[in-house]
Amino acid sequence: MPFEYAGFEMAYDLMRIWSDAFPQDNADDIRKFITLALKTYNCAVWKEDGHPVSMAFTLPAVLELKSGSLNLCYIYAAATLTEYRGQGLFARLLGNVQEQLANNGVDACFLRPASPRLFDYYGRLGYKPFFYFISENLSSDDFQVNTDRSLNDFTEIQETAFRNKLLENHSAWVRWPDVLLSFAMQNAVQTGGAVIGGDRGWAICERYGDKLFIREWLCGPEMEEALRRKVAVRFPGLDIIRRRPVNQTEILQSEPFGMLYPLTNAAAEKIKTVESAIPYMGLAFD
Length: 286
Description:
Elements: E1 3-5, H1 11-21, H2 27-40, E2 42-48, E3 51-65, E4 68-80, H3 89-103, E5 108-111, H4 118-124, E6 128-138, H5 140-143, E7 155-156, H6 161-167, E8 172-175, H7 178-190, E9 194-198, E10 201-208, E11 211-219, H8 224-234, E12 239-244, E13 255-262, H9 265-272
Parallel strand pairs: 4-5, 11-12
Antiparallel strand pairs: 1-2, 2-3, 3-4, 3-8, 5-13, 6-12, 6-13, 7-9, 9-10, 10-11
């Protein structure tokens, strides 16, 4: 059967598909993720002539809701070799993956399209925008704020628990496995960045050329200035790209971030009840 799950013997083929689809990605980073994922999670592949030509990693997550939770699967690094595109191979691969996941108790799949045009592609496969975010371009001066709050509330951290605690009061948010969250945190540090946080705020900061990319910013308004100042002290003079959750008053300024596909009727009904809560996905490992 052309559809199966990859083993370590397919690592070279997965590298080839990934590099072909995402040539901007660093080879060492690709290799590091594939090694981690094949040890811990699954990668579905479609084979032609005995070799994988299309792939998608299937990573577990949980959608936390006020009324309970849903088991999710994140479809990641979805790609097909250039010469095999346009034949519907990935759509068939994804269909097989979704069928197996539904049989194994997964409630919904979600993903982040790699480019804006892919929102239409995944829309044709039944996915709908579900997660939203705010992306901001800020100057270094925007973070040079005076505050009466102690900067000692925040430090460079390695613990993953702070993130989940800060999101507990959100109506709908994605809880990532600690393995993946730690992976994102380690990647930030390896770029020359840091994870700055504490009980009242959290910022995953990555060096991105001559800028600072804050992959995730979680902070209540009462601690906003203190966390900004802490980041400015740690990374002086850098302009900033920041991703953060959407407040209810900012819906018109928000952008779609991730798409979701319910695998059962029960999950679809439950999901309808939280769409207006501006569900938060946060990380995408992009």
